[in-house]
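Practice problem: predict the structure.
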Amino acid sequence: MIGYYLLRILIFGFSWLPFTMLYFCSDGLAWVLQHVLHYRRKVILTNLSRSFPELDPAATQRILKKFYRNLSDIILEGIKGMSSNEKTLVERYHFVNPQLITNYFEQGRSVLGLVAHYNNWEWGALATKAQIKGPVIGVSKSIHNKYIDQYIKSRRARFGADIIDMPQTPRAIIQHKERPSMFVLIADQSPSNGRNAHWIDFLNQDTACLPGPDKIARRTNYPVIYFDVRRLRRGYYEIEAILLTDHAAKYEETAITKLYFRQLEKIIRRAPENWLWSHKRWKKRRISSLSSKE
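Answer:
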């Protein structure tokens, strides 16, 4: 309960903070994370060196510094967004081609939207519903603290999006069968079970990937769209919907996963500092068929 009340106080305090002051605080937080706490420094540098072996140490350090600033912005923007009004968020998180989704709705088809931990993903649930004319269902992982989990879900859903837990996805798909909707998943997370994962080459490494988005896309034949979140300047984002395929059912298993990660890698290479390098994304190792039999 203490964590819940601290979060409420923090969100209330940031509700009064102008965005100019928010980024002043973000600069300070970035400095503390990098130079005082050395937040996951070893993990970040290991991930960067393995993903970009062609970079010299100086270039890696430049990405590291920019990463901490991006991370700090995302943290504080996420908190600020919990109390921001819809008009402000839509102005700062603008979809450039929402008609791509609307066209599928008009055809009576639902859509599977895939995003990543790149730039600000937190504002997506808050700013999407006003710009996508149809039901929006965000799929998320539950937070261990049930009070915080319920509160954050309620804040994210306050402008009309539905927020559900991952295990509820099949039921939600059935419930929306007759009503074209957009289901949105963050698909670049590491799976809990390496045996059931899709294994692909991603950023020069053998990578375990969530099988769920691929399975959902092929079973439903929903058009699969990647949302590219580009930072125009601090606190302002442009979101482009990129069609990966509108005939997912014709693909073999893992093919949709590969399409998604191929697009994500292209975007990461464009500006690597904006991805979430602080997670141990490559901690799992593939188990060979011989080892599994033993």
